[in-house]
Here is the input.
Amino acid sequence: MSSSERDQVFAEQKSAIADFKFGTEVATVFDDMLIRSVPFYAESQRMLGEIATDFAVPGTNVYDFGCSTGTTMLLLDQQLPPDVKFIGLDNSEAMLAKCEAKLKEQKFSRPYELRYADLNSGVAVENASVAMLILTLQFIRPLNRERLMREIYEGLNENGCLIMVEKVLGEDSMFNRMFIKYYYDFKRRNGYSETEIVQKREALENVLIPYRLEENRELLFRTGYRYVDTFFKWYNFCGIVAVK
Here is the structure.
């Protein structure tokens, strides 16, 4: 895959912190940001690849909501049948441009579409055997989440699956404080400074709004999924799979 520049978006002290945006500056370093900011990112990607392989049906669509730079699409391309079409959606033109460049660089040959889409405004989903929300739902306004989940559910074929990876809150304030501490220790081990940790936390404060794991499970059952389970959990990060 194409190399990513090192994430230094918040390395310099800023006089004012704006809300986090997935613009060109972030898109340029996003692959490095994911590896250094998301615990067991490579392993959770491998796991979702295994799950998607069991549910992807030839002649159907696989949707990646919040596809960012296309890392997941490139991973799945090596595993899924060639007549499965990939559809990547994102609300960042910079991310879509980076994704397109990576797919071309890797000589991505299967049918695919990249679409600009604001998931807060709804989506059209059709003939889907697999849908993915990888670190995406947490950025959707809570008021809009149930509608989005229902639209995805309605576009999934019977026995299709939704795979989610989310940042989550602890089930009570004590565990929440502990898990956040462990997470910041993880970021320090990956080379982030105190300035970077504090400034990014402030930038994300009004943008990334996590639910508790149980709240996400309840949302999935309320949407109509028959089966819901957790396939990955690390303190305040989790992976969930739901089957229609």
Notes: Residues 1-244 form a domain with the Rossmann fold fold (CATH 3.40.50.150). The chain has one domain: 1-244. The first helix runs from residue 24 to 37.
